[in-house]
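Suppose you are handed a protein chain with no further information: no name, no annotation, nothing but its sequence. What can you learn? This example shows the usual starting point.
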Amino acid sequence: MATTVKTEARPRRSSAARVLAMGIPLAVAAGLTLPLQARINGELGHQLQDPLLAGLFSFGGAALVMAVATVLIPGGRTAFVKLLSDTRRRTIPWYFHAAGLIGAYFIFAQASFVASVGIAIYTVAVVTGQTVSGLAVDRIGLGPGGKRAITALRVLGVLLTVCAVAWAVSPRISGSPDAVAMLVPLALTGLAGVLMTFQHAVNGRIAAQVHSPIPGTLINYGVGSAALALIWVLKLALTGGLPTLPNDPWLYVGGVLGCINLVLSALLIRRIGVLLTGLSMIAGQLIGALLMDWLLPVAGSVIYPQTVYGTLLTLAAIVVAAMPGRALEGFWRRGSKARQDSAAEAGGR
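A reasonable first move is to predict its three-dimensional structure. Written in structure tokens, the prediction is:
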């Protein structure tokens, strides 16, 4: 009987190891799409001299991709019908669909600030915003997982992340002739990260209720595209002058990359769990940002040692923040027991 149990356990452990070995690199690859999307949207905004229009192209492309997915995938069509029905019955609040406005602002921030702060510093600032706001979102229970306590380790992780970002951006701020000009885009970029956490929480609630992330994401992209289009038309009416569109096709695929990230994350969460997926994607996001500043630099993309060390500290802080509160309690218990054993041994001597 014992032999049978061991024989069955080995394939299970081997299968779980294979899932992790494949899933974690895929999650890292999904994270790599985010800085690439930011670089593309930033470059498009630079060439157009119009971040709003660049954001509109990105969001509109993503809305088109999600619309096609909704039509072609049977589960997407069923979930979309349920989304409309639940919204009419008010089991899904109508204002949940306004989360697309947050996504529109996030894309606008990408197109506006990547060139001025550099992709690495931009990414660290966004991750900091996500980490800080994650405490509030978990505490109020906005996400599908319900309320989660604010533990000492999570607070420590947030504090470490804030310190890491201050360390990472310190050379750029101290070396800038106008520190205020540097701080403003950083603050607005961090705000984009803060708001993105709330958007993800709302989208998670919708996806859990309709059993698919496709229709809620489509509504988000549709609302965001409409908002960006309205603002851009008003801007055009006030300032006039149509921009010349760049001919490079790769400048228009930023929205497609966002959809790829969404699909991969939705698939991987079921395989390797929310925690490993989130940590791996953030790792890919930060690593990809540094690689792009190194291999594909643009104006303002300077890699300082402090940026590298700050990124590494941010990764460590995210791991600390993700640990359960019981880990800290167990650590202190083990330390207390070791001290008691040591004192007992000394007394016995």
